Amino acid sequence: MSFQAPKGVSEYVPPRSALFEQALNAFAQSARRACYAPVETAVFEDTSLFVRGVGESSDVVRKEMYSFESRGGDKITLRPEFTAGVLRAVLQYNLHKGALPVKVFTSGPAFRYERPQAGRYRQFYQFDAEAIGTEDPLVDAETIAVAYDAYRSLRLERFTLLLNTLGDGNCRPVYRAALQDFLRKLDLDADTRARIEINPLRVLDDKRPEVRAQTAAAPYIVDYLCEGCKAHHDTVRELLTSLGIPFQDAPRLVRGLDYYMRTTYEFDHALLGAQSGIGGGGRYDGLSEDIGGPSLPGIGFAVGLDRIVLAIESERGATAKETAGCQVFGVPLGDGTQADVLSLITKLRRAGVRADMAFGSRGLKGAMKAADRSGARYAVLIGAAEKNAGTVRIKDLKDADQQDVPATAAADWLLSKLGETQ
Ligand code: AMP
Questions:
Q1: Domain check: are 367 and 240 in the same one?
Q2: For residue 388, how far is its CA from the centre of ligand 1 (angstroms)?
Q3: Does the C-beta of 79 come closer than 6 Å to ligand 1?
Q4: What CATH number does the domain containing 127 carry?
Q5: Is any atom of ligand 1 closer than 6 Å to the C-beta of 281?
Q6: Do 345 and 330 form a contact (C-beta atoms < 8 A)?
Q7: Do 137 and 244 sit in the same domain of this protein?
Q8: Do 372 and 307 share a structural domain?
Q9: Which end of the chain is less enclosed by CB atoms within 10 A, N or C?
Q10: Ligand 1 centre from 354 Cα, in Å?
Q11: Omega before 101 within 30 of 0, i.e. cis
């Protein structure tokens, strides 16, 4: 094999790709049930959409972007995340001038130049949902419920919702200064000291034990919240409780991107080791102005579909076997029978059955092996004898029963049998 995918690119091929599809569908369906509308937006954007002025301090933006100059000299970046692009599209297409909030979802690849490891890739896949145009804490709870219900519909259990608030323009500066005072007195490396000046909240998120130990007594934002932020946070907590969504207060939780304020959250999976974040979100009330739009509060989340696939596998040892395989497999035996099998299979497909057939004039043995591999419950055989008699032979691959059924009645026969076994 001469070519390999570039390092760190996450890809899916059968059978595992079926789990990926399941994960994506679970989130899309959950968002649809909450009346979010689908959008598809640019995979590459003007670099300045992500790099907004000096002081931009997140690692994602400073170190991890795939940025390049296009042939025409434009500065382009492959999206490292969805929120900025989705908000850009909402503004560009004037969706915010209609009914608010604008509720949209999307999915696809995102790109970050990270050190590849299990659960961390350079091209990875996110599902993203955003509710733009309201400060109402109800919608904070709604976004969390949409994500939570999707994880649960995938039968995931071993995850925790971590909840925090980051305050707002009123209270965060006071807290930031208090935190900086505290951090400047610690014995930290040069990089971390620099971070104290740019984004001190990120220091709280540092996972290194020696940093953790020193920041154990750091002041927390919850003790500095202004009235408005405190009321907002309390309401979100109460709403989650009333929805039966368990959460843990996480006073150190800070998000990787800078534009978050008030509600922030993360979903953490217990079995995924170092890359345990399976999704996260929060409020970004200042982002619209930052990218040249009107004042437009918003909240949303993005989940890592790659890690959700890993979580499904680690929790239930699931393989793609349990996901939709074939239900019926057609076996033509001899010249002139292929078209009959294809017609029957096509009829079944049109009725919603997952059906396949043997191609390339295989012998009975090879075709039956293919039928077994397909996962189908029934094999449908048509040979010269059946063709002459106007019948098809239907083999139940589970209990090895077989019977001949008139060709004209075969599709209905199979449909009713499959209906019974569902
Ligand atoms: P973020 O935009 O950093 O908040 O990421 C949201 C979610 O995307 C995370 O919780 C992860 O599940 C996933 N994610 C972020 N970065 C990566 C990556 N490099 N590889 C795989 N998944 C990622």
A1: no
A2: 60
A3: no
A4: 3.30.930.10
A5: no
A6: yes
A7: yes
A8: no
A9: N
A10: 34
A11: yes
Q: Which atom of ligand 1 is nearest to the CA of 303?
A: 7
Q: Which of 285, 316, 347 is the last residue of a domain?
A: 316
For residue 53, being part of any structural domain is answered with yes
Same domain, 82 and 162: yes
Q: Are residues 273 and 359 in the same domain?
A: no
Its sign, for the CA torsion 256, 259, 265, 267, is negative
- Residue 313 has which token pair? 């596998």
- Name which residue sits closest to atom 3 of ligand 1, judged by CA: 256
Q: Is residue 198 part of a domain?
A: no
Q: Which atom of ligand 1 is nearest to the CA of 60?
A: 3
Which of 316, 348, 376 finishes a domain? 316
Whole-structure pTM value: 0.92
H-helix or E-strand spanning residue 213: helix 209-215
Count of structural domains within the chain: 2
- Of all protein residues, the one whose alpha carbon is nearest to atom 8 of ligand 1 is 304
Q: What tokens does 340 get?
A: 């009959």
Q: Which atom of ligand 1 is nearest to the CA of 302?
A: 6
Domain that holds residue 283: 17-171+225-316
For residue 43, give the amino acid letter: V
Cα(136) to centroid of ligand 1, in Å? Answer: 26
Q: Can you tell me the distance from the alpha carbon of 183 to that of 218, in angstroms, rounded to the nearest whole number?
A: 8
298-82-235 Cα angle (round to 5): 30
**Is ligand 1 within 6 A of the CB of residue 280?**
yes
Spacing, Cα 256 to ligand 1 middle (Å): 10
Ligand 1 pocket test, candidate residues 81, 124, 303, most atoms within 8 A of CB: 124
What is the CATH number for 400? 3.40.50.800
Same domain for 279 and 373, yes or no, is no
Q: Are residues 29 and 114 both part of a single domain?
A: yes
- pLDDT, one tens digit for every residue, the chain (422 residues): 799 999 999 999 988 999 999 999 999 999 999 999 999 999 999 999 998 754 456 777 778 999 999 999 999 999 999 999 999 999 999 999 999 999 999 999 999 999 999 999 999 999 999 999 999 999 999 999 999 999 999 999 999 999 999 999 899 999 999 999 999 999 999 989 988 998 888 898 888 899 999 999 999 999 999 999 999 999 999 999 999 999 999 998 987 666 788 999 999 999 999 899 999 999 998 899 989 999 999 999 999 999 999 999 999 886 655 556 899 999 999 889 999 999 999 999 999 999 999 998 778 999 999 999 999 999 999 999 999 999 999 999 998 899 999 999 999 999 999 988 65
- Residue 375 falls in which region: left (phi positive, over 0), alpha (psi -120 to 50) or beta: left
Token output for 166? 């980051």
What is the whole-number distance in angstroms between the Cα of residue 237 and the centre of ligand 1?
A: 24
